[in-house]
Amino acid sequence: MQYFLLNKPFEVLTQFTDENGRQTLKDFVPVPHIYPVGRLDYDSEGLVLLTDDKKLQFRLSDPKFKIEKTYWVQVEGIPNEEALEQLRRGVLIQGKKTSPAKARLLGEVNFWERSKPIRFRANIPTSWIEIKISQGMNRQVRKMTAAVGHPTLRLVRVAIGKLSLGNLQPGESRSLTEEEVKQLQLFAKPKAPYQPHFRKR
Questions:
Q1: Is 102 found in the same domain as 85?
Q2: Which is it for strands 152-160 and 35-36: parallel, antiparallel or unpaired?
Q3: What does the pLDDT average to over 156-175?
Q4: How far is Cα 51 from Cα 48, in angstroms, rounded to an integer?
Q5: The domain that contains 139 carries what CATH number?
Q6: DSSP letters of 25-79?
Q7: What is the CA radius of gyration of the chain?
Q8: Where does the Pseudouridine synthase RsuA/RluA-like domain start and stop, copy by copy (predicted)?
Q9: Of residues 41, 43, 53, 62, which has the active-site annotation?
Q10: Is residue 27 flagged as an active site residue?
Q11: Domain residues for 10?
């Protein structure tokens, strides 16, 4: 079995083929028969897990396992405590409330230069927040920050569970260590059904 982490660059598809000629995972991890666990939007950056372990891929992609993903998000404006608390409680997206998230304001963040700079507005400051979620709704983080009045300018996934981006630069990948693979398999191991025990009288 093979397990890789990739720092997906901006404007790369989280798939291995594209009929329109856009960059895909194949341009960065030319390993046959591996697949991404979940997705990361074309205009987002950061950590993607790839494997040919189909059982693990299925289990980690299943929402019931609730694997936590950590995002560092550059937004318009500076969210106050009320906005952060809204994210923590969950926000309404198309009539459906998101599950509670972990959210906090970050200090200065120094990432690599993006291939296309973000859009700055001279009269509006920007800030970085950390958001941790275990849901997987379409473009969820972007919709969440917009719902509290702070549109996303840049989004970088920095961790999947205990797997972190570390020193990986955009386009770089590495194999997981044996210990990392064991932790993933343990996390995704099906739980035994509850069996009540009765004392004999």
A1: yes
A2: unpaired
A3: 94
A4: 10
A5: 3.30.70.1560
A6: GGGT---TT-EESS---TT-EEEEEEES-HHHHHHHHSGGG---EEEEEEEES--
A7: 19
A8: 2-147
A9: 41
A10: no
A11: 1-66+166-189
